[in-house]
Structure formats: C-alpha cells, structure tokens
From TrEMBL:
CDD domains: BRO1_Alix_like_1. Its main location: cytoplasm. InterPro entries: ALIX_V_dom (IPR025304), BRO1_dom (IPR004328), BRO1_sf (IPR038499). This is BRO1 domain-containing protein.
Amino acid sequence: MAAPQSSSNVMIAIPVKRTTALDLIKPLKQYIAQHFSERDAPDKEEEDLKAVQQMRNEVDKATEAYEMRRDLLQRYFRALSVIELKFPFSNEKNHINNVYFTWYDAFKQGRKASQQNIHFEKAAIAFNLGAVQSQLGLSADRTSTTGIKQACNSFQAAAGVFAFLRDNISIKAAGSNPTLDISVESAGMLERLMLAQAQECFFEKVVNDERPASLCSKVAKQVGIFYEEAYGALVLPPLIHHLDRPFVVHVQLKAAQYHAEACYQAALDLHEKEEIGQEIARLMAASTILSEAKKSSRAGAGPLMDAVVKLEVNVNRNLDRAKRENDRLYLIRVPTVDSLPPLPAAVLAYSTPVFEVLDASTETLFSGLVPESCKSALSTYLEMVDDVIRRQAGRLQQANELTRSKLQVMDLPDSLVAIGRGAMVPGELRDKVEAVQSGGGPSHLAAEMTHLQSLRRANGQLLAETQELLEKESSEDSEIRAQFGARWTRPQSSTLTRNLHNRATEYATKLKQAADSDTQIERTLHDNMSVMEILDTRPIEKAFPSLRRSHLFADLNEDDIVGGLRQKLNELEQLGSQRAGLEDRLKDMKLKDNILLKLMSTSGPYDDLFQKELGKYDTISVEVGSNIEAQEQLLQQIRTLNDTFCSMFGWEDYKGAQDKSHKQVEAAISKFREIQGKINEGLKFYTSVQAAITNLKQQCSDYVMTRKIQSRDMIEDLQRKSTGMPSNFFSALGGIFRH
C-alpha cells in the first residue's frame, strides 16, 4: 500500500510593484506654510518631512532582507494614513495639486499609471506589503516544522493584507487611470491564492506528522478549494489574459493536484476500513482529475507537473491494486464517480487581520498640525466620553457598595464560616487572649502580687534599719553630752540629721500609702479572679458558643440550603469580578479613544461623528446594566436562602451568645490589664524606693561613722586636758565609746 503523498515544494510569490522617484518635502512644506501658520513645533515637522521622504525613497529599493522591507512598508503606510488626514491631494486649487504618484503594474511591468490620489499610493504600498509577505513565506525552509510554521504565518499575513486592500483601498484608488493589479478582483484573487498556500502548509504538516488519512483528505480538499477560487477569478474579466499563462496554469494545476490529493487520501482511509468499492471510486475520480489537468495544462512548469505526475502514478498503482483485490476477493459493485458525495473540507488557514499593524492612531508624525476647530471638537468629545465613563463607573461602584452593605446586614459570609469552623473568635481578640496566656494568665497576677508584698516588706525593713542607725547615734551623743556638760561643744545630732530624718519620714509615708494601694489591688484581684478565669480557657474557642442546627427544622435538607448559599455567593463574587473587569475596560477604552484623525478627515459639524464614536460605549453600558440586574436578582435569591438558614441554625440566638462571650472575654482582658498595670506600677515604685532607701542608709552609715570618729577625738582631748593622763589612756577610753 502506498504511503501518503507529500506535497511538493512548489509555490509562488507575488512580484512587487515598481515606482518612480517623488519629492514630497517641497509640496508638503508649501502646504504647511499656507495652511498652518501657527505651529507648536516647526522643527519636528521638518524632521517628519525628512522621515517621510526617506521612507518613500527606500520603498523602491530591492533587498533580500524581507523583514526590513515589510517593516518599512508598514511604517510608510501608517505615515500615509496620517498624511491623508492632514494633506489633501487632488487637482483642486487649494489642495496639493502638483504631486503625481506613479506606479507600474506588478503583473505587466511595462504598464504604469499616475494619479493625484494618495489612496493610489496607499494601494500600491499595501500590495507590495502583501507581496513581501508572500516572499517571506516562499523563502522559509519548509523541510522543518519551524519553517512550515513561518511560511504558513507569512502566507496568512499576505492574505490579510490583500483582503485589507480589497475591502478598504481598492475602490478609493480606482481613479481614472488605475493599474489592474490593485483592483478589487485582483486583491480578492491574491487573498485566495495566499490562503491556498497557507492551507498547503497545514497539509504538509499533517502529512509529516503522519496524521490520519481522513484528516489529510479534509485539509487537502480545502487547499484545492482555495486554489479553485483563485483560478476562477483568473479566467474571468477583468483578470482574464492579464496575468502570464504560467501563473494561471500553476494555479489551475494546484487546484487539480489537491482535489486529486483529497480523493487519494480519502481512498487510503477507505482502504483501512475495507470499503473497497468507495476506495476504487475515489481513486478513479483522482485519476480523472489529474488526467484532465495534464491535458489542459501542457505548458505547466516542470517541478509542479512532476508532482502531478508522481501523484498520478501513486493513484493509478493503488487503483490497479484495488481493482485486482475486488475482482479476486470482494466482488463489490463500484459506485460511479458522479454518485459519490462531496468530500468534506477542513479550513485551517485564515487571513491575518492587519488593522493593528497598519493602525496610525498612535503615530506622532505632524502631530502639531491640528486645526483649531479639531482641537475644540476633540475637547468637547473627550468631555462627553468622561461623562459616559463617570456614569458607568458610578453605577459599578454603587453596585459594589450595595453588595457589601446587604451582605453585612445578612452576616454573610461569616455565618457560613461559622458552620465549618465551629466556635468563632475574632482574630484580634484571640491575639489579645494569647498575649495574656503567654504572660502566665490570671494566676500569674497572684504571684506578682506576692512579689509586690515581699518588696514592700523588704523596703520597710530597710527603712527601719536606716532609722535605727540615726536613733542610736543620737542616743549615744546625748549620753556623752550629759557626761561632759558644757565642755561637749560638738553640734547636737538633731541639728545635723534633720534632713536625713525628713527623708526617712517621707519614705515611710510613701510606703504607708503604697501599702494602702497594695491592699486595694489585692482586694480588686480577689474580687475579679472569677471574671478573669475565662482567660485560662485553652483554646479560647471553648469559651465561645458553636453554631448548631435547630431540631425544629429537621425536615429541611442542610446541604441544599448551605450549598445553595455558597453557590450563590460564588456567583455574586463572579459578578464582582466582572464589574472589576468592566471598570478596567472602561479605563482602557478611554485611554485608547483618540478620534483626532477622524475629526481632521471630517468637515463639521461633528455631531454625527460624536454619536457614532460614543456608540462604541453602548455595548459595555449594556453589560454594566446586565451585571447590575443579575446582581439584584442574585441578592434576592440569597436573602431567601439566608432567611431559611438563619431559622434552621438559630442564627440570632447564636449571635447573642457569641456577643455575650465576646464581651465577657473583653471585660476579663480589660480587668486583667488594669490589675497588671497597677501591679507593674507598684513593682516599679518599690524598686525605685528601695534604691533610694539604700542610698539613704549608706549616707546615714557614713554619718554615724564620722560622728563616732569625732566623738573619740574630742573625748581624748578633754581627758588629757583635765587629768594630764597619757594620751594612750584616753585612747583606750575612747575605744569604750566606739563599742
């Protein structure tokens, strides 16, 4: 059995049109000087003129860098679109009437035409863009998957350009002296031809990938249809006899080749299914198509004719084999070719839209050349657009606010969350409780209170020791003074220790006040320990109620109610996402809404243009309304389901119990913090007072030591004077006082 027939690498590219040199700078410059006296950036206009002229000069230069030629033609076409709106070309007096665009016919190189019509120039550039795209496709290496894809994309791009030429420019470029290559009929024929070659690339791909013969047949059938449509245009006026016979024969042979290829592939599929009669009929049809094509295309090019002959050999070989098998084994009646149903086709190739690459709305050429009337009209239009955007955006925002407020009133989705999670504790409250528990909880306050009391006792003991030092020193001073009488001239202790006594008294007063405060704190702690016990609950969720279904509604299906609510909320969220998308689309539409070029191509008034352009916002306005209407209906459905849900689960009672627990925990935390704050304040106080009393005690100790030294020296001096005893005697006596 023969392998699937692969397409031969025989395709054609469209030749480009040639032109003559043309000076655009001088006539455009004169027009600017006459009609745009006040300009924002004359230097930029000079640069723009040079840029346009350079592009025009390079258009007719032949180069093998097809991508560069393609990009150049696209840039120049966009520039022409800008020029078209700002510079009128015609034979009228106030127009640019000294510029003639001259181009040769691509298929009849000796024929040329000249027009004072910028659409003629645009048509020629569009034609050449399609031709270059076809040359890109032909230059791709289709022996690889990547090359087939590149060729296919280029041919589809070429088809898109020729379709654009046919639909948007050809009629405008007809004029009084056009070339036939840019006519509507020619552009349509070329689009079909490029689609045929793009579809042929798809056929090569499915054959190389060894896809089923049934699919290969459908793809081949569409290749033949495209070629047949192109051939049909070539043999009818006005194109008949216009293109060279080899071109026409090529298209004719291609159509026959792929109609036969479709039959051949279909026969392969029928052979696998053992439908021998249908197989023989399809092979007979293929053989007939190829035989007739060879007879009518004797002048066909060698490589293509070789491909046709090769296909014919495979067809006839399979046909002979099938007939022998049928005569020997099957003995099936073979249907006539005319009785066969048409083979199905699969369209895989489409014209690639070129509006984006040829769109001149973002071009900055001659941007400073804007008539004052257009500026004013544009400002008016933009205000109208802003009004539309604000109105629709306001509706969307209002819908968002309405959703939030109604869901909040219905406690959604919190009530549904409560079912799946049991007891609910707000995150902020849980954090507060965990902070209390990590610090030891209410029981830790009792320990801190004990520590506070021990610090108070320690401070009292320290102060008592300090006061005892002063009292003992004062007592000793009084005894010595009584012994020596007037001879004891040292100042009395009371005159020296007044400040120390005052400070000690002050600390004693503070300690007394602190003790009273401690008693109050201890009483508060004792009285509120039961209130704060809730904070020892771990986890704190155990202190809160759980949502439970009421036994009064046992007949209702929980899954229907809860599941229905969740589904409706999901639908509501999707509507919200749609609104966000609508807002983004409104912003994007406004950002891209630039009708300046259209204003410049329209002679006022602009009311009709404004209404037409504002009409592009009608669709999204309808979508906004539909979204809001759908939301209203959905919210009503949610309310109905939620009412049943609240009754089924006793939601209001649950909320009351939840609120009560929340307040209890908040009150416990508040009281805990209050008591903890007071204890911490007390600890801080006792720590600072302890340091102060320690310092006072040290001062008192130093004072007592100094007084003892003074006392010893004075006693020795007085005894020596009164008795004449040795000094060591008095030293010994002084020692008595030191002890």
